Amino acid sequence: MSEPVDDPARQLQNRLDIALATNFDLALVFLPAADIALYVAEGRVDLGITGRDMVQESNVDVQELLQLGFGKCKLCVQAPIKSNIKNPKDLCGKRIVTSFPTLAAKYFKELDPTKTTSIHYVSGSVEAACALGLADGIVDLVETGDTMRAAGLEVVSEIMTTEALLVANPHTAHKELVDTFRKRIAGALTAERHVMIEYNVERARLAEAVKITPGKKSPTLSPLDDANWVAVKCLILLSESNTKMDQLEKIGARDILIYNIHNCRVSNE
Ligand SMILES: Nc1ncnc2c1ncn2[C@@H]1O[C@H](COP(=O)(O)OP(=O)(O)OP(=O)(O)O)[C@@H](O)[C@H]1O
Ligand SMILES: O=P(O)(O)OC[C@H]1O[C@H](OP(=O)(O)OP(=O)(O)O)[C@H](O)[C@@H]1O
């Protein structure tokens, strides 16, 4: 038998721009990154994931809950390498093209309140503006710098660093759900960035070992059959795991094991 076509729940499930969580009271709505902060600030959605640059450009009141660790780049003033512009003040009163008109206008106004800098908005490919004669300089994102260099531009100054954030409406009516969601994401991020290290060390060298692996609160110690030795277990950053193993081996630690963590809840998340 076919499903009734006018069933609203069924229609929502079939939409590509909305995803319904099946085991949590949450609907995900996919929106342009630049519009998300506004929807969150107006309380149309409770939570949003977008860049810090987008939040500040929107100039609205949202609460930053978590830094998500991706989408890292810098918003920079850029000018042609071959120009005489080496200081952002050289661009005050000149023509700027950008996808960030609010941040750019604020930056140049603060730099020199006596001059009116012309700020023009374009929606993408901002780096083309100088070569095409529309701008003396631009304000745009730089990650690797490849796009900037390919366009013959260089960084004149850095306005801000940005990355993806989880933001919330400060007056949400669903505080408990929001907090549970934040904790779930924070737990998954902590698990992704950490590993569990376990090793045996002589009691006489325990103080040195604890200095190398202090754990988030303190390491877990377990006695061994041999009273002169102790087993140590704690979380360390994945990025530091090889260095820590080298250091532990140097102070005589043995049987050093590293485990991946699937998920976790730890304090200070
Ligand atoms: N090269 C990059 N490296 C890291 N983060 C980036 C980069 N470009 C954009 N972002 C980040 O991604 C978010 C969305 O930016 P943007 O709207 O430009 O996305 P997009 O995917 O390039 O969209 P579109 O292609 O439609 O312009 C912003 O928060 C921005 O800081
Ligand atoms: O320093 P890079 O690693 O080269 O990255 C920077 C580029 O990435 C973004 O552009 P995107 O690809 O989103 O295209 P767009 O300019 O059309 O938004 C940004 O606007 C820069 O153009």
TrEMBL record:
- Does Transcription show up as a keyword for this record? no
Q: Which GO terms describe its molecular function?
A: ATP phosphoribosyltransferase activity; magnesium ion binding
For the Histidine biosynthesis HisG C-terminal domain, which residue ranges apply? 191-263
Would I find Aminoacyl-tRNA synthetase among this entry's keywords? no
Q: Name one GO cellular component term.
A: cytoplasm
Q: Which residues form the ATP phosphoribosyltransferase catalytic domain?
A: 33-186
**Listed EC numbers:** 2.4.2.17
Q: Which domain of life is it from?
A: Eukaryota
One GO process term, biological-process aspect: L-histidine biosynthetic process
Catalysed reactions, semicolon-separated: 1-(5-phospho-beta-D-ribosyl)-ATP + diphosphate = 5-phospho-alpha-D-ribose 1-diphosphate + ATP
One Pfam match, given by its short name, reads HisG
Pathway of this protein?
A: Amino-acid biosynthesis; L-histidine biosynthesis; L-histidine from 5-phospho-alpha-D-ribose 1-diphosphate: step 1/9
Keyword set, alphabetical order: Amino-acid biosynthesis, Glycosyltransferase, Histidine biosynthesis, Transferase
Its name, as the record gives it, is ATP phosphoribosyltransferase
Protein source organism: Capsaspora owczarzaki (strain ATCC 30864)
Q: What is the lineage of its organism?
A: Eukaryota, Filasterea, Capsaspora
